Amino acid sequence: MTEMIENPVINSPYKEPKRYFKFTDTGITNKIIKGRRESTYFIPIPKPKQRSGQVAMDYEIQSRATPNRLINAIRKQVGIWRNKNYPHITQITRRLLAHWQAPDKAHKLFFCQIEAIETIIYLTEAANKDKAGKQLLEKLALANEQATPENGKVLNRLASKMATGSGKTVVMSMLIAWQVLNKIHHPKSPRFTDKFLVVTPGITIRDRLRVLLPNDAENYYQKLDLVPNSYLQDLGRAKIVITNYHAFMLRDNIDAAKLTKSILGQSHNPDLFKETPGQMVQRVCRELGKEIIVFNDEAHHCYHRKPIEEKSAKLTGDARKEAERNAQEARTWITGLEQIKTTLGIKAVYDLSATPFFLAGSGYGEGTLFPWVTSDFSLTDAIESGIVKVPRVPVDDNTINENPINRHLWQHIGKAFKSTRKNQETEFVYPQEFENALSTLYDNYQKAYHLWHKRRIDYPDSMPPVFIVVCNNTLTSKRVFDYIAGYEKEGPHGDKVLIEGTLPIFSNVQNGQWLAQPNTVLIDSQQLESGEALSSEFKQLVSTEIAEFKAEIKQRYPGRSVDTITDEELLREVMNTVGKKGKLGEHIKCVVSVSMLTEGWDINSVTHILGIRAFSSQLLCEQVVGRGLRRMNYETEPHTVEVEGKTVEFDAFPAEYAEIYGV
């Protein structure tokens, strides 16, 4: 039976984990074991438990844990190599490793960041010097080969599994610095390059990763002291292209009218006006040149479909559509990389993801770990090291069943939300379970909101806590949005009447008028991230929202013309500035999302998450929960824990929490 854990932080974020909570087949216990947990395949999901107050940390295991043998074997060899003071590496690499781990370093790096780059360095520079290392390289090569179809190009992929909020972008910066500086000092070595292609799943992450560019004002190399000052200028040698995978789609080569294309025969040959794969590579990679290294950020979107599919339950409805979308994204991404390898050559592909698993629609069992993962710092590890918020369920659910309604919400409300009205005059009847769950989570949010409001006197730059709702499709999200934020309806005399939202803090309607600054926003992050035009259906749903934000821009930035801003750019700016002082989205307190919020949307002021959709796998659960895990405070304080009757003292971050229902 799962036991209560009051203080989940039992390790320093800056040192290798020295202790962990014991898991059994029935859940987590409060027993602390000395040593480090093996890398295993399971993803803990918060489990509610009846108690006054709240569950501090309470997980249940959805499936029996299975050790990741290859990752554990690599971890063991990296540990041996580390303890021997890193033999078989270049002097540049040695200087960097010492700099990153210097005791007096102002910007300390997490242990998980050090371990991730140690692992890549070991496999690149040292593993081929001994029998055990050579066997690991052979296993990784075989894993990549077996995951590639007969007609595909085998890529040398090495994946780092790092929990959301543990600093993957910092690791990417460290990898670039290591490669570039070694390339300068060892120009003929085939191990190193100064050419990099960074591929992301969307525009938000693409723009955020400008910190990888050495000439960017906010670059991490200088801001986080990632290289000695004497090496900073050398990083200017790097050639870095950052793009989203959508750029791999072949574009029209000729700007011809539809009628002209029809006359010239495109109707019989759809690819007649498309660029060739070689032209796509030239457009995307520009001046990079040959023999590049690729970074796949959020790499779980990039893989080959399994040639012989595993048996799995038949998908229907939204789940089937999502699987088809996953498959199309993965096909576009991996095909693009193969075409780049054919044209330019790819030395290696470094995958970074909190969830490097095959998705539904891949032919693999959903949530199967990529076989080329080399290091693993899981969500559980990150929680125990205090690096991320602790996901938990507020305990006000009086259900005494083993599976409380508020935990498995979609099972109780899915049928109602999937239904369509027979005529538009009939108002949608919201399920009681939905209203109860939303009300309970909102009550908990109010406490956090009022506490923030009180603290604003002393901390005027602090941002309000953010509540997010993740829905299954456009129809559900609009119904939820109307319930929360308010809506317009036709009155008895044919006039328009505004109905206030049910939750006052989130309502966009007040005293019969739309607020000048909306409290709640409806977004479709997947449409916005693609860079393509919004669908006409979604534009119609958010037309009022767009008009309000355009009016706000005129007031906030008098010299800025709204006529030159597309609706897509406007909503993207709102979405990406939630929780940011002085920006368009600073006043947003609630975000209702169509489908999954994309990975680049990581706001550290998220405190509450409600899932209004099915969660068919542990992978989906962690992806949704991950949107609320980024910490707000990074100042350590003294901690003590009891281990085998002895008191252990260490410095760590205080626990922070994200409240979650329906996931």
Written description of the protein model:
This protein has 663 residues and is of the alpha/beta class. It folds into 3 domains: 19-67, no CATH class; 70-368, Rossmann fold (3-Layer(aba) Sandwich), CATH 3.40.50; 390-661, Rossmann fold. The chain has 19 helices and 24 strands. A 6-stranded parallel β-sheet has the order 9-8-10-11-7-12, with helices on both faces. The protein has a 6-stranded parallel β-sheet with strand order 13-24-21-14-20-19. Strands 1-2 form a two-stranded antiparallel sheet. Helix 3 packs parallel to helix 5. The longest helix has 27 residues, at 317-343. The model is unreliable at 43-62 and 397-403 (pLDDT under 50).
Summary?
By secondary structure, the chain is α/β, with parallel strands linked by helices.
